[in-house]
Specification:
The longest helix has 25 residues, at 81-105. Strand 2 and strand 3 form a beta hairpin. Helix 2 (11-21) packs across helix 5. With 112 residues, the protein is α+β, with helices and mostly antiparallel strands. It has helices spanning 4-8, 11-21, 27-37, 46-58, 81-105; strands spanning 25-26, 62-69, 72-79. It has a single domain, classed as Winged helix-like DNA-binding domain superfamily/Winged helix DNA-binding domain (Arc Repressor Mutant, subunit A, Orthogonal Bundle). InterPro entries: Metal_resp_DNA-bind_regulator, Tscrpt_reg_PadR_N, WH-like_DNA-bd_sf, WH_DNA-bd_sf.
């Protein structure tokens, strides 16, 4: 994706959506899933991901679970009940934003 600034405002929503679809995920898994879904168009760096995960955890939207994998501790993230509700709210807001942008960019193709 040419302009990474466009996705930065949506990063938390992307994380929440992925966790909504999975029971739990660890950081690297999140970055790889986004890369896979977008066919490499969107690459989330660790420098952007982990501060976002920590912020979502601090807001009470994520729980953290430590699990030993191959003699290493791995930190898994999963949605809290509050996180599940917030995910639905943020997805609705994002869909409304996308519809508005479609209306501005190409009024003939906008979805009503």
């Amino acid at each position: 994706m040419g302009n990474s600034k466009l996705y930065k405002g949506s990063l938390n929503t992307i994380i929440l959506k992925l966790l909504e679809e999975s029971e739990k995920m660890y950081g690297y898994e999140i970055t790889q899933k986004v890369k896979e879904i977008t066919k490499g168009e969107l690459n989330i760096t660790e420098g952007a991901l982990y501060p976002a995960l920590h912020k979502l955890e601090a807001e009470g939207l994520l729980d953290v679970e430590m699990q030993k994998v191959d003699n290493r501790l791995r930190k898994y993230y999963k949605l809290t009940e509050k996180g599940t509700k917030e995910t639905a709210n943020r997805l609705t807001e994002l869909e409304e934003y996308i519809r508005t942008m479609q209306t501005i960019i190409n009024p003939k193709w906008s979805i009503q």
